[in-house]
Amino acid sequence: MIFIFLFLLRPTHTRQHAWQLTSNAYNFFSFSKPPPFQHPIPGLIEEARNKFKNMMSKQSRTLGDAVKEYRSRYGRDPPKGFDKWWKFTQQNSIKVIDEYDSLMKDLEPFWVLPPAELRRRIRQVGTLPSVDLVRVQDGKVDVVKGLYDEPSARAIGFSSMVKKFEDVLPDMEFSINSKSEGRVLVPWHFIKFPNSTRQDSTDGFASMIGEEFIVDWRGRSNVWEAFRRTCDPQSQSRRLLNSLRAHFNETDSVNHFESAPNLALDQSFHFAESTNANFDFCAHPWAKNAQGHFFSDWTTISALYPVFSPAKAPGYSDILIPSHYYYSPTSRYTYGFDRLTFTIKDVDDHEVPWEQKSNTVFWRGATTGGGSSPPGFLPQYQRHRFVRMASDSSDINRTVVFANPPETNHYVRAKVPVGALNEDFMDVAFTKAVGCANYPTGCEGMQRDHRFAEAVQLGEHWRHKYLVDIDGMGYSARFFAFLASESAVIKSTVYREFYSDWIQPWLHFIPLSTTYSELYNIYAYFSGASPSMQEAIPSATNLTSTKPSRHNADEELHRIARAGRNWKAAVGRRVDMESYVYRLCLEWARLVADDREAMSFKF
Ligand SMILES: *[C@@H]1O[C@H](CO)[C@@H](O)[C@H](O)[C@H]1NC(C)=O
Ligand SMILES: *[C@@H]1O[C@H](CO)[C@@H](O)[C@H](O)[C@H]1NC(C)=O
Ligand SMILES: *[C@@H]1O[C@H](CO)[C@@H](O)[C@H](O)[C@H]1NC(C)=O
Ligand SMILES: *[C@@H]1O[C@H](CO)[C@@H](O)[C@H](O)[C@H]1NC(C)=O
C-alpha cells in the first residue's frame, strides 16, 4: 500500500497528527516502506504532560524571580502592590505565578489611551444596557447599578472576588459585561493604528461609534459583519464573496479544510491539539456558520472601550475575568455543592468509582447557543449539530481505529455504521427547547430532528466516563464542575477564558474539534471495540504489523479524569480566581492612574 503524505497542506495552527513519522529519514520522495503505524493519541498525551510539567516547574519561587520574570516578559516594571499580591500567592499556595500573557495582551491596547480618557471610557460604556459598573472607593468594592437594570450576577460575582483585598486597592472602576457573549469588536485598522481613530471621547459614546447605540442588531448588521472588520484586510474574511458563501455543509466542515485530503484516514482521525479557541475565522470565513457565536443578537461595540467579560472568541477586545458561575457555588454549576450547608464537598454525593462509571459519552443541555441575527441558521449551531450527529441512526459508515486484540497496541481500522456506534456509546440529548421559533420548521421540526430527554441533575453526569462540554450562548459554565468530577471531559469551544493559559489539553481534558467527527475515534482509542466495532473485525484492516503488547487505554482515560480533578483542586480554586483578579486590579489601577510610572513597583 502506498501512502501519500500531503504535509505541504499542513495547517498553520494545528499539527498533522493523522500519521506520525518515526524517522526523519523517511520523506515524501522516498519509496521505501511506510513507517509503522503509531496511534497519535499517546504522543499527544505525552507531549501535554511534558508541557505542563515544564511550565509548572518554571514558576517563580521568590518575589525577586517573579519581578524579573515579569520584566523580561512584558518589558516594564510590575504594578505597585505586586509585593502584596506575591504575599497573597504565598499565603494561599497559588501555583501559577507567571502565566499572565493572556491578561497582559487583553490590557495592552489600553496603554495608548491617556488615563483620563480611559477613565471616561469606563464611565461611558458603564451606562450601556447590560454593562454594570463596579467601583472600588476608599478601600471598599461595590456594584454601582446599571442605568437600566438591576446589577447583574456577573458584576456581583466580580465584586465578591475583589472583596478579599479591597482594602489595599486604590480607587478605580470596572465596566462589567452582564452577558455571556463578548462585546467589543474593534476594526483592524483602529487597533493597528489607534491614532487614526478618535482619541477623545468627550463628545460621548455615540460620537465614538458613529451612531446611537441600539442594544440589539434588529437587522442593521450582525456579529459576523463586525467580526470580519477585525481581520487583516488581506484575509479571506475581508473578501466579500467568500464571506457570503453561506450554507454550512456538515461533511465540508472546519477541519476538513485543514487536513490533507488524501490521507488514508480522513478528518475523523485528525485530533485537535487544543480547543478551537484559537481558530482563525478570519482565514476560514465559511466556518462561521457552524457556531451560534456569530449569530448573537447583541450589538457589538466598534470602538476600543474596556469591557470585562467571562469569555471571548478571537478578534474580541474584551478583558477576561473569571466567570461568576465558577466562583459562586450553586447546585446547577458546582461539583460537590451541598444545598443544606451551602458548602462544597471534595467528593460529590453522586460520584461513583471509576469502575462503576459507564463507558458512555454523555451530554445533556438546552437548545441554546446563539441568537438569530441573521435568522435561519439555527440548525447549524454547535449544539444542534452535535445532538444530530450523536443520534444519527443511519447506516452511513464511520471509519474507526481500535485495538484488536483488546487492550493491546495492535490497531485495526474498520468501517462501522454511525447508527450502531451511536447506539453503542452515545447518550446525547436536548432537555429543553428554547428559541425554537427560530428553527426553520418551528418547535415541532426541532423536536422531530433532535433527540430530547428528561432534564437531569448535575450529579447524574458522574455516572459516565466521558462528559462532553459544548458552548452555549457563550462559554459553557459547567466546565469547572466537569473537571472537578472523576469523569473525563471532552471539550469543544471557540472561547478563551481566564484560565486558558493555565490548563493543558490532552492532560486535564480532551480537546474536540468543532466538527466533533473524531469523537468516535477518541472513544475507540480509550475504550476499545464497542459491540458494533467487534462485529466489523472480520472486515477490518490491520494497521500494526508488530506483535501486540499490552496497553491499557482505559487507565489513560482515568488518568485524564484524575488530572482534571487535580487541576481543579490545585489551580482552579476560588482563591486562584482571586489571585487572577488581584493581579488584574493592580494592572488596572496603574492604567487608570494619572501617573502610571508612580504606580509601578520598584524592587
Ligand atoms: C500613526 O502611527 C503610526 C505608527 O505608530 C505612524 O506610522 C502614522 O504616521 C501615525 N499616523 C498619524 C495620522 O499620526
Ligand atoms: C458536502 O460536502 C461533501 C464533501 O465535500 C460533498 O460530497 C457534498 O456534495 C456536499 N453537500 C452539499 C449539500 O453541498
Ligand atoms: C459500510 O462498510 C461495510 C464494510 O466495508 C460495507 O459492506 C457497507 O456496504 C458500507 N455501508 C455503506 C452504507 O456504505
Ligand atoms: C491481522 O492481525 C492479526 C493479529 O496479529 C492476525 O491474526 C490476522 O491474520 C491479521 N490479518 C490480516 C488480514 O493480515
TrEMBL record:
GO terms for molecular function: transferase activity. Signal peptide: none annotated. The keyword Disulfide bond does not apply. Residues 269-567 form the Glycosyl transferase CAP10 domain. The keyword Transferase applies. Keywords: Transferase. It comes from the Eukaryota. Belongs to the glycosyltransferase 90 family. This is Glycosyltransferase family 90 protein. It comes from Botryobasidium botryosum (strain FD-172 SS1). The lineage of its organism: Eukaryota, Fungi, Dikarya, Basidiomycota, Agaricomycotina.
